[in-house]
């Protein structure tokens, strides 16, 4: 089947046309970074307005780039949550309108399921696989057992790692988004000069914490500023290197544990997949690759454009749900919160 996907849950307005075999006919993403830049974060009201203004054009462009019309489609998939409610509502209303006008099936998609199913779109992974979702707003381990079957093994109890990279950049006067900027600085830095904590590594389970790192970093920064009157370039590089190393250490160890839990289920061709913008980080990627190899699992990292927010993943997750018999009526609701694993069978022996 061929689906139009619609995504508007955060600060990207996106539409895409995708076929069930993984062919992406088009994927249009319109970011809003410039609209929110002056405010130091995403402003929900501004985001909702921008989505409402841009969604129609985005969907039209996706169809045009695909060389298709609504008559060629088999369904409409739309992010129905979780996210900023104004944006989600805009997308859901457009999808309902299109479905009502064409008679096409309407399929509501959980945004996180979109991320979690992306390695099936890009690499045709078989269920079950382990997904590590690391973005600006999310951080969790999921065993993906089916299109609507997820087991959450743990995640961050505070900041997502992308958020921590962004805050670190802000702290050190580096540009946003912080991830690429901090990573670039870290290349010239000595990760051993500052001893940053490795939060929750001493506790069992797969939960993580990243907000303490930022506090520790702040303390080191202020100590240097008090002693020297400012930060030298090398200080900045060393702090970035220490921070990136700490995040990588935590992710590596927690991934090792999550992999062990997942492997205990006995997948035929075990695989660890990543999604989210932090998956772009080369040092973190290298660590995860090594952990997977050591455990005997394949490592799958989709192209970055499909790791960050996009509508191709929503169209594809919609197709997966549709194939499993899922669809929605005109009573589909937009949900600000929507945990993924409510439908999953309990995992035996998951010591959280
Ligand atoms: P979501 O709703 O999925 O959380 P988001 O927009 O917050 O969406 P993404 O678009 O998936 O998140 O990713 C953006 C985040 O990824 C930012 O926090 C950014 O700093 C981080 N990031 C991007 N590149 C890198 C990198 N090379 N290293 C570390 N972090 C990175
Ligand atoms: Fe996302």
In short:
By secondary structure, the protein is α/β, with parallel strands linked by helices. Helix content is 45%, strand content 18%. The chain has helices spanning 33-36, 44-66, 85-102, 111-123, 161-171, 178-186, 211-228, 233-263, 282-295, 304-307, 312-323; strands at residues 2-7, 12-19, 24-31, 75-81, 106-110, 129-134, 139-146, 149-155, 271-275, 298-300.
Task: Tell me what the structure shows.
By secondary structure, the chain is of the alpha/beta class. Helices cover 45% and strands 18% of the residues. It has 11 helices and 10 strands. The chain has a 5-stranded mixed β-sheet with strand order 3-2-1-4-5, sandwiched between helices. A 5-stranded mixed β-sheet has the order 8-7-6-9-10, sandwiched between helices. Helix 3 links the parallel strand 4 (75-81) and strand 5. 51% of the residues are buried. Bound molecules: adenosine-5'-triphosphate and fe (iii) ion. Adenosine-5'-triphosphate is lined by residues 10, 135-138, 162-163, 165-166, 177-180, 183, 276-278, 280-281, 308-309.
